[in-house]
């Protein structure tokens, strides 16, 4: 038996949509407040990421707070609109805030124990800026609601751009503001061609060959939790929508059941790969998650796991987290008496990244196609 597990970002596709959506979100917020056309680019995003702010939701909210604070120089009563179609009516002939300078402040050592939004709030509100009580509350609201569609302009703009207006409305049951296509569809770039994706599906149609996608992207959830179909959009973009997906949507459901943190079961947790292995075999998602948690957390192995005995599992990932999840999953299975062969396939071209993946025990290839060709899954290009 052969099982292929694929990470998504930087393995199946090159992500571009999230950063483009973040850039456009900041530009739209600036326009709503009356700023001239704003240049918010990759260097600005890198400045935030270098200070440990990786969530686009967080970065968008921090930038909105900085823009509003700067707008108060001209009009102290201006407020952030609740809809991207609303304009403040102001025309602000002032330069925008220095996003990179503030991002650098977020990386200060004394703030390291705080989450990014907490760091931003402390920096913005601990200074002697003489805010009115209403102004201070506006800044707190922007930052504290950054990850919720309720009460956050930046969150709603970003999610509508990421998903596209139609899917956004269907998912959130909220009216669209922008009439936008999905930025994931526009700016993510498949790393395999349609012909190669078709060849992979054909390879998997043979007996005893199985496959799944395991990703940290939001995905369609089980009932009782909320998530968005961003992993499904990515799979469709590369022509692998037939593969089952173990994404954040399912893992959030498990976190709720186990009263754990939202990221508790995302790779490098062994639960991510364990549940993806069962999902690849066609087992229902809820059962996969429950069985994976029982094995990883309690050492309890049902008869379902015996179906993996002797399997050859190839795990394709560009980061250590997914490969570490696979190693931990194999260890749990071996402890339960299920012997399988795990092969770690790192997808990376950067020398430093390759070195890290080698230390975990991975074979590395610059691109997925080269890996699949070397493994005789697809013909050499």
Describe the structure.
The chain is an alpha/beta fold and 381 residues long. The protein has two domains: 2-13 and 189-374, HAD superfamily/HAD-like (Rossmann fold, 3-Layer(aba) Sandwich), CATH 3.40.50.1000; 17-183, no CATH class. 49% of the residues lie in helices and 9% in strands. It is built from 17 helices and eight strands. The strands form two sheets. It has a six-stranded parallel beta sheet. Helix 15 (320-335) links the parallel strand 6 (312-317) and strand 7. The longest helix is centred in the N-terminal third of the chain and has 17 residues, at 17-33. The chain is elongated, with a radius of gyration of 23 Å. The chain starts with a strand and ends in a 7-residue tail after the last helix. The model has no long low-confidence stretch (mean pLDDT 95).
Give me the CATH fold name of the largest domain.
Answer: Rossmann fold
Count the helices. How many? 17
Q: What's the total count of β strands?
A: 8
Strand order of the largest sheet: 5-4-1-6-7-8
> What is the N-to-C succession of helices and strands?
EEHHHHHHHHHEHEHEHHHEHEHEH
Shape estimate: elongated
- Helix/strand/pairing category: alpha/beta
Give the termini distance in whole angstroms: 26 Å
> What is the H level of CATH, i.e. the homologous superfamily of the largest domain?
HAD superfamily/HAD-like
Number of domains: 2
Helix content: 40-55%
**Largest sheet geometry:** 6 strands, parallel
Q: In percent terms, what proportion of residues is strand?
A: 5-15%
Classified by CATH, the class of the largest domain is Alpha Beta
- Give the overall average pLDDT: 95
Uncertain residue ranges: none
CATH-level-2 architecture of the largest domain? 3-Layer(aba) Sandwich
